[in-house]
Structure formats: C-alpha cells, structure tokens
Amino acid sequence: MFNVEDGSKKSFFRYENGVVLMMFFTFGFVFMERLSVVYLFPFLGPDLKFNNAELGLIVSVLAICWSLSGFVFGTISDFIGSRKHVLLPITLAFSLFSFLSGIAKSFGAMLSIRALMGVSEGPVLPIAQASVIADSSEQRRGFNMGFVQSSLGLIGSTIGPLVLTYVATKYSWHAGFYIAGIPGLIMFFILLFWMKDPNKRMSKEQLAKHEHRLRREDYPVIFRTRNIWITMAIAALMMTWLFAFTTFAPTFLVEYDKYTGPEMGIITAAMGLGTFFWGFMGPYISDKWGRKPTLVLFSFVAVLSPVCLALIHGSVLVMSIIGFLTCAGQACFPLFMVVVPGESLSPKYVGTAVGLVQMVGELIGGTAIPSIAGVAADHYGLQAPLWIAAAGAAVSGFIAFTLKETAPIRLRSARDTSQPMSV
C-alpha cells in the first residue's frame, strides 16, 4: 500500500504519508469514542437518571486512567523500542469497551467501563505521535503531527456528534455506543498489516547501540528539560479549556439555550470542524512562524469559544459560524503536547515525554476540572463551566511566553543571525 523505501518527495504513496493517515484515523476514532458519552448524555442521562456531577465524574475517571496509562505505556514503548506491539492490542481493547458502554444499566457499570476505556485509549496519542515524528521530514514535522491530532476535530467533534446524535434520536443511545466501536476494529486490521516500526529501518550498528530504545540512565534527561515543565503547565490549563468546554457545551445548548438534539449536533459539529481546520493550520503556521508565537496567539483566541457560547444565543447558522471560527484553541494541542516536547528531546524520548505532558494535563484539566465544573454547573448554572474554560485558556497564553523556541526554521534563522559575516 505505502512504500516504506520510497523517499521521493513527489510520491504520495511514501510511508511518511501512510503513517500520518493511519494515525490520523486511529486517534480520531479514539476521541470519537471518548466523547461519545458527552454527545449521548442528553439521551442516556434522563434514561439512567444521571445528574451533571455524575457526568463530570464519568468524564473524570476516564481521564485519570487515560493519563496514567498514556505515560506508562508510552514509556514501555520507548523501552522496548516498538510502537506497533503496544498500539495493536490497545486499539482492539478500546473498541470493545465502546460496545460494552452500550449495555451499561447503572452509574457504577458506566463508570467502570469508561475507566477501562481510559486505560486502553491513553497510550494512543503518545505512541501514534512518536511513530509520526520518527518518519516525518523536518519541513513537515509540525504539519504532520498537527494533522494527526486535528482528527479529534474532524472525526471526534464533527462526524461524532452528527452520527451519534442521529443514531440516538432514531434508535437509542445504546446503538450510538455500538456504532462508535466499529471504526476502531477496522483500524486494528489496517495497523496490523501496514504499520511499520521505525527500528525496522535502522542499521545493525544503530540497533546494536540501542539508539531506538530508551535506557534507564537516559530517563532523568526528560525532567531536566525546561520546555517539558512549561508544556506540562500549558497542558493542564488548555485541557481545562478543552474538557470544561466540550463536556458541558452539548448539555448547555440543549438545556439552557433550548436547541433540539439534532440542532445541538449541528452546532457542535461546526465547532468540531473548526477544531479540525485550526488543528492542522496552527502547526502548519508554526512551521513557518515558530512554535512560541503560534501558541501564544491561539491560546488567547481559545478564550472566545466558551465566552461566545455563554453570551450569544443566535440561530443554528450563526452559532455554527461562531463555533467554527472560535474553536481555534485546538491549534495549540499538537504544539504543547507533541511538537515542542518532541523537538526538545531526541526521538527515543518522545513516547515518554508526550505521555508525561499528557498525564499532567489529563490529571488536572481532564480529571479534576470536569468534576469541579459539574458541581459548579449544579450550583451556579450551566454557564459556570464555560467561564472556567475561558480562564484556563487565558492563563495558558501568558505561560506560553516563557517557552524556548524549537521550530527548525527559527533556530536556523537565529544561528545565521549570530554568525559573523565574512569579509
């Protein structure tokens, strides 16, 4: 299908494009399954008698397991020097847990199943992006990793709400979970036959030196890298924005703004389309402009999405346009989670570094915040989570000023400027 050996820049069927597409769809379907409980909550909540705090807890427990699992299995993949051997079983597992979500009949059952789903889904992003960075050309590194992560916008936040709310309206919320699990099974077989580990293309000398594997003595290097600490802080704040917003926006639109289920699906799909577009355009801009200024800009733009939703009540078309234009915060995620950590360290550290940044972000923004926002929504109204989301993005923008630039084009420019001119 995709030729691993073909290094031609003009050939679409080279492995660089193949691995980007495989990881794009794999991570996109992961995020669709992760957000499926949010889109289906207006249907399953009344049926199972769940309140907003319980929704927040369901989202939080998945995030806890997602964060810890991502770090643990990302590190394991670095130590064994293989991405494929870890990615295959977890792809099969998260698909099966989506099916099991459809048969849950109580809060305890749903909580347990979503926790197990978090364990299986957490390692996907670190491993997928480690695979992409290993096979990306320098001039496309930001775009490739941004494109992979933008799949959460196109598949997870655009196609997901349209398909799942339609299925839930026409059939049941149970059927929605069943539908969400099918694509992951398809990706399992695609990865089985076409995914290649980077170490398969290393020389015997490189393999003998263990250049494809993380060694125990290498481990402290990650924690001595300044950008890792800064990106962990940004991750916590931007995931506060992401999960406070995405967890409660669908319910806000239905219960507070009184849109119908299908109308909510259209508006959230438009937001998802915006996250898809900006998710790869932001990293593409950073390839030309630099990682640091791009992160600063789009962090502040992200503030507008929850603020506009809280203050504006317009037609479905108006809200869809606003949602598309303001969900530009997704441009930040590939940068702080993958690109900057990946460029701050050598490739063999990427799985661990990305897993670490993801873990911190998930534990704070993805775990604590949905529960806190759920309690705030029950006590102060459904607008409260939106203001929490806006605050997270705003603080993130200020912290991004402290990053050390890693974009190759900016580093080359700085070196050229610092060199004395020859006479």
UniProtKB/TrEMBL annotation:
PROSITE patterns reported in the protein's UniProt record: MFS (PS50850)
Pfam families: MFS_1
One GO molecular-function entry: transmembrane transporter activity
Domain Major facilitator superfamily (MFS) profile positions: 19-408
Membrane topology: Multi-pass membrane protein
UniProt-listed InterPro entries: MFS, MFS_dom, MFS_Efflux_Transporters, MFS_trans_sf
GO CC list: plasma membrane
Domain of life of the native organism: Bacteria
Residues that span the membrane, as ranges: 20-43, 55-74, 86-104, 147-169, 175-194, 228-252, 264-282, 294-312, 318-340, 352-372, 384-403
Compartment(s) of residence: Cell membrane
Keywords: Cell membrane, Membrane, Transmembrane, Transmembrane helix, Transport
PANTHER family in the record: CHLORAMPHENICOL EFFLUX PUMP RV0191 (PTHR43124:SF3), PURINE EFFLUX PUMP PBUE (PTHR43124)
Listed name of the protein: Sugar phosphate permease
Organism: Alicyclobacillus sacchari
